[in-house]
Every structure is written in C-alpha cells, then in structure tokens.
C-alpha cells in the first residue's frame, strides 16, 4: 500500500497530467517533439547491436518480470529464461519475493521449471535441495560427496524489488544499480492502479518481430485508426501526449473525455469536480516501463482489467516473445462477466498478433533488405523518439555511467515532486 504522502502526491501528479490533457484537447493541440527524427535501420537489423542490447539492456537493467498477482501465495514460484539467463522467482514464507539464478550450485542444472507452489526445490540431476529463499539445505549422499560450505552454495540472488504490485529483477548478481533509482518515482504513479490487490485472470505468449519494432507499436497512437481500423475502428483518436520519468513513458489522448468504468460511456471530465475524477480516468492511456513493458486498461465483461504486455528479445534479431498478462481488479463473479473478460483478452490477441506483430514482421523483413538507410519518427511520435534515444544511450553507457545516469534522473524526479 502507498503511504499517505506519496498517495496524495501521486494523485496530484495524475491530476496535473489530466489537466494538461484536457487543455490540449480543448485547444485542439498536442505536445510535439522538436523535429522529425531519423533512426538508422541498423537499430532494428544489426545482429551485433542486437547481441549488445541483450547484454547491456536486458542483462543489466531492472526488468519487470512478473505482476505480483502471478505469485500471490507463499511458496508460489515461476521459472523464466530471459535472454538466456535462467531466473527463478519465489514468494517466500515472509511474503517477500526472491529472485535467483536458477542454477544448482552443484553443476548448474536449473533446479525447477515452469510455475507452481513449493517451499523447496530438489535438483533433478543429483538431488541437491534448496529452500525457496535460496538456502542449500540438502546435499545428496553428503558423506560420499565430501565437505562443502552450504552457506556459500545457496542459489545466487539477483537484486529484486516489489513495488506497485509489480516485481522487478536485475539479471546480474553483481549489479549495484539501484532499482528505485532506475524507476525515477514512476512506480509511485503506477501504484494508482492498485495492482497489489488485483488478480491474474489469464496469460499467454505471442511470438513477434524484432523487440524494438514490436515495442514501437506500444508507444504509438498514430497507427491506431489505420492499422486497427477493422478492430478498434477507424475513428480512433490518433494523438498522444507523452509524460516521461527517465526512460519510462505514459501516453494518453489529449482530450477531456475519459471512459466510465465498465461501460462504453464517455465522461466529460470538465463537467466533474476534480475531486470526483475516477482513478481509472486518471490512469487512462498506455503506461510503458522501459525497456519492454506496456500496460493498458480494458473493461471486458464490465470488470476493470488491464493488459500487461511483457516483451523479450527472441532467438534472432527478427524475433521477440511477448507474454500478455490479463489482470483484473476483481475476480469475475458471474459466468457472463468471466466470458466478457475472456472475450476482451482474446480480442487483444487478435489485434496484437494479426495486426501489430504481423505488420511488424513484414516491416522487419523489408528493413532487412538493406535498401533503406533510416526510418522516420514524426513530431507527433515523440514517445518512439525518446525510446530510441534511451536505448542508444544505455547500450553505450559503462556500468558506472549507468548508475550516474539513473541517480541523476531520480534526483530530477524527486525535485519535481
Ligand atoms: S546439478 Fe544439481 S544436484 Fe547436481
Ligand atoms: Fe497497435
């Protein structure tokens, strides 16, 4: 739960953003980037750069690895593979989350796969046993094996932070980068969703194109009425204003309208006192978490939900894998509500798979032809511009520079409060 002061400041910050959205909407304007940006095609196609991104972005920066509601109970666990790194997340007995290198300290075999609930894990190779807080508790045939220091041989721990109902981990056991600094206060805003009390309704994996090609789409309202004319509709608003906390960006329509919870009805926020603006109106739009998460609200079956899309680079430069989590504020109560939520989630699979990612695949294949030098991001596509600037800056930063960059960003964010 948020402490009172943070909660008030977060609501004030959300109100400030929404006032600005309304003002722009009334004036028929939007925040524009200074200029049209050119991004070299190699940003999407270069194999060496792709490998560097895995090393220097995905294995060095905090990643949002799971919503808290995926591991609600003590003993819940999830094993993942991220850019070749085996990760084990556990909910420990005291309720906190552990993030471990999923490699047995004997000879490196992953101690568990998939998801489930267990207080300890017995390695399937020779039978060493670890508690879900990482401690080594049993060596098979210890007299035969010889003396070992069990305290030294616990599972290696990754830095981990649970905040705003989301779990971040850094896939580097030696990382000294502060996850709080990295978030630049953004998690205080994300806390407005209240995800720590939500439930996981369903999840699925979708293959996609190059991770940056795929991610561009989540930072882009410009394409909505065109690419999604047959699903969302061709009258969808194509303007977004961007709000940034370090590399993390929220996009929202510059408009006075917000959807009323659980209905298609639009609220005119200028006709409602600010104190009564509903929280879901204040968090409308898309919340991205650098480098690979997008969160957007939906209301299938009348229940408030959100799709959290979590993207990882795939095997090759032209592939990515996205996990779509459909989380809901409350467990649907009736069969009809459940069906409505499922239909909403299935609809989002069609939109992303058949429209966004199939276009991304075609776009990537064409870029691989080598016939074009750069792509363009318009003044109305500031979010994509900022994303590519950050990706470039962070790939090229040394470990020390990385810490300095986020310490400075965090200080700016704190000062703005
Ligand atoms: S590798 Fe795990 S017990 Fe041998
Ligand atoms: Fe899209």
TrEMBL record:
Q: Name any cofactors this protein relies on.
A: Fe cation
Entry's CDD domains?
Answer: Rieske_RO_Alpha_N
Give the InterPro entries listed for this entry: ARHD_Rieske_2Fe_2S, Rieske_2Fe-2S, Rieske_2Fe-2S_sf, Ring_hydroxy_dOase_asu_C_dom, Rng_hydr_dOase-A
Stored Pfam families = Rieske, Ring_hydroxyl_A
Q: Which GO terms describe its molecular function?
A: 2 iron, 2 sulfur cluster binding; iron ion binding; oxidoreductase activity
Where is the Rieske domain positioned along the sequence?
63-169
Keyword annotations of the record: 2Fe-2S, Iron, Iron-sulfur, Metal-binding, NAD, Oxidoreductase
Q: Which domain of life is it from?
A: Bacteria
Q: Which PANTHER family does the entry link to?
A: CHOLINE MONOOXYGENASE, CHLOROPLASTIC
Q: What is this protein called?
A: Rieske 2Fe-2S domain-containing protein
Organism of origin: Parerythrobacter jejuensis
